[in-house]
Design a protein that fits this description.
single chain; globular
Length: 251
């Protein structure tokens, strides 16, 4: 089994969005990523689908005219389109067998519409919460042609690929734990942990349920320490240099 990190653009966010109390009014570009996993049997799993390519020409597509427009701005180049990134790896969306969404926000599920032939794994609680909620635009993920597999709690999606419930950022958020033969454990936090400063300040007020978010984040950090894991945070800029992206492959 192997994994590569797909760079899918940036979000320019006010510090208050990521960790309140840390550069609240400073607008900072943070990475948006997808994680492409190739299983031993050749099947492909994609963790998170990034932002819709329509943001390339229209950054205000999702939040234009709303208060969120002042604190969150997508920043994508043509090369950041998920279809382009998959093509660089010699793949098309139809080559992906399973999609795992950590949650259904626009920067994690914005290209779900590309995968009508895949099984899309989401926590049931997240799917039911997101359906009709204004912060989860339906045009990206709530489509009749998509096939969702709704799970309740921890589950093995495939050999070496596990989802763990990490609520707090939103109800039903999940993180992903990979077990690679050489690298060992890789934890993909999703937005359970946006950036490292969240731990430094131990401030989780940017999440819907701060107490649950704190518990989830500290559980992940303990797990990472216990397993000596590679711990990839949802939007940490420093990790772009620390952990190479495509074409680097983690085995």
């Amino acid at each position: 089994m192997e994994m590569t990190i797909l760079p899918l653009g940036d979000c320019i966010c006010a510090g208050a969005v990521l960790t309140p109390g840390h550069d609240d009014t400073v607008m900072t570009p943070v990475p948006v990523s997808g994680y492409l996993v190739t299983l031993d049997d050749g099947r492909r799993v994609l963790v998170d689908t990034g932002m819709s390519r329509d943001h390339i020409g229209n950054p205000g597509l999702t939040f234009g005219g709303s208060p969120a427009e002042e604190i969150i701005t997508p920043a994508m180049q043509p090369a950041d389109d998920l279809v382009s990134r998959l093509a660089e790896a010699g793949l098309a969306p139809g080559d992906v067998d399973v999609v795992i969404n950590t949650h259904l926000h626009f920067d994690h599920a914005g290209n779900n519409f590309l995968f009508p032939g895949a099984t899309i794994v989401v926590q049931r609680e997240q799917y039911e919460f997101a359906d009709g909620h204004p912060s989860f635009p339906n045009q990206y993920w709530n489509l009749p042609e998509l096939h969702y597999e709704l799970v309740d709690g921890a589950a093995e999606v495939a050999p070496g690929v596990e989802v763990l419930p990490t609520p707090g950022h939103v109800p039903g958020h999940q993180s992903v734990v990979l077990t690679l033969p050489q690298t060992g454990t890789v934890i993909l936090s999703g937005d359970a942990v946006h950036v490292a400063a969240s731990y430094e300040l131990d401030n989780w007020d940017g999440h819907m349920d701060p107490a649950a978010a704190r518990e989830s984040a500290h559980m992940l950090r303990r797990l990472a320490a216990d397993r000596r894991a590679v711990f990839l945070l949802g939007h940490e800029p420093a990790q772009v240099a620390e952990y190479p992206r495509f074409p680097h492959v983690y085995r």
